[in-house]
Design brief:
Length: about 375
């Protein structure tokens, strides 16, 4: 396909595709899927070889969030029967992180529900960061605490944080349909605050919320313009008890096309396969490794992932290798200088929710182990 040849050439040059090209990737047929994966895989291997970075989530504070993000099981008014607990102590969080590090994780992601941290919360998380760093030489720590106030990013950086995560999630045009208690602009500002403080920015999206192809392209083009170092791609986990519980819009093939489009638009960025991969990719997860260079190991915030050992076996069986702490994830040009880009525009109406054939609600498994419990974690 001329389209794929063009996209590979642009990806190898770090050149932004056109919006029409990105939309065309999402519009390819299932018969063309392996060609799409092979083309995006060339770009992935150019910048990241066959390395896979492992990341491990520690949910520092679960549930009871005052925000109304429709996709989230921890949201205000959620009826999802998830674990609920207040802040883990520094030693508890460090112990939880150690399980992921022992499983091969290079980065520990510290997440807390809520609109954003208080100064006391920043002090608390700073102690946790220090505890994890003291116990695990060479391990990166990323904080994800919500909207930041002035000076908080700098304090986290001083405590030893390497990165900060705050996802855009969906297009600016449709953001208000998903969340009303804060704005898309609030999220952009927090990512920019993290970057200004010298933290590696991590910002991504959630696919499968009923958005259009144009919405997906819009948010990925906005991420390219924002220029984070890592872009996590989540696939909606339709928790019972949340407004999007009936949004089963994804097939494994659709999920792979989304990942390929992200890789073509963000060729030299750490693209991370995040929440929902087991639910929507299922047995096609190994194909996604040809598109992404980073995954979460084990469980997520409020849902369980496949066994950590199964993740490691999948990586090895697919011919990839786990990235060590002695390896720099990003290509040299990004690690030193970062890269600029251009912005896309346009939007389209959100289609009605639909349930695709083969939707697997039985794969949505609420987390009952690890952080906040007495049960051993999955890593």
């Amino acid at each position: 396909m001329d389209l794929l040849n063009t996209l590979v050439e642009k990806g190898l040059r770090r050149e932004l595709p056109t919006r029409e090209e990105a939309l065309a990737v999402l519009a390819t047929t299932d018969d063309e899927l392996l060609d799409v994966v092979a083309a995006a895989g060339k770009v992935r291997r150019k910048w990241f070889g066959r390395r896979v970075k492992l990341n491990y989530l520690v949910n520092l504070k679960s549930g009871l969030c005052p925000e109304d993000c429709s996709y989230c099981s921890q949201r205000l008014g959620s009826k999802a029967e998830i674990l609920k607990y207040t802040w883990l102590k520094a030693d508890e969080a460090s112990k939880a992180a150690a399980a992921g590090v022992a499983g091969g994780a290079k980065r520990v992601c510290l997440v807390a529900s809520g609109r954003g941290p208080t100064d006391k919360d920043v002090d608390r998380v700073s102690k946790t960061i220090e505890a994890i760093k003291d116990a695990n030489e060479g391990v990166e720590v990323c904080a994800c605490l919500g909207l930041l106030s002035d000076g908080q990013a700098e304090r986290l950086r001083s405590a030893g944080a390497d990165a900060y995560n705050h996802n855009l999630n969906t297009s600016e045009a449709t953001y208000g349909d998903i969340t009303t208690t804060h704005t898309y602009a609030d999220r952009v500002e927090t990512v920019q605050q993290a970057q200004a403080a010298g933290l590696s920015a991590c910002s991504g999206l959630i696919a499968g919320m009923g958005e259009s192809d144009a919405d997906l392209v819009d948010v990925v083009f906005s991420l390219r313009e924002l220029d984070p170092d890592s872009v996590p791609v989540n696939f909606l986990i339709p928790f019972e008890g949340t407004p999007l519980a009936k949004e089963w819009n994804l097939t494994p093939q659709r999920a792979l096309r989304v990942l390929a489009m992200v890789r073509f638009v963000c060729p030299d960025v750490e693209v991370r396969l995040a929440g929902g991969r087991e639910v929507h990719l299922r047995t096609m997860q190994p194909l996604a490794l040809h598109l992404v260079n980073s995954i979460f190991l084990g469980d997520y915030l409020t849902s369980e992932g496949q066994a950590g050992q199964a993740d490691l076996e999948m990586i090895a069986d697919a011919g990839f290798e786990v990235e060590g702490t002695d390896t720099t994830t990003l290509p040299a040009h990004r690690a030193q200088d970062g890269c600029g880009s251009v912005c896309g525009d346009g939007s389209a109406p959100v289609p009605a929710a639909r349930e695709v054939a083969g939707a697997r609600a039985d794969l949505v498994s609420v987390r009952r182990r690890g952080a906040g419990t007495d049960v051993a974690p999955n890593a």
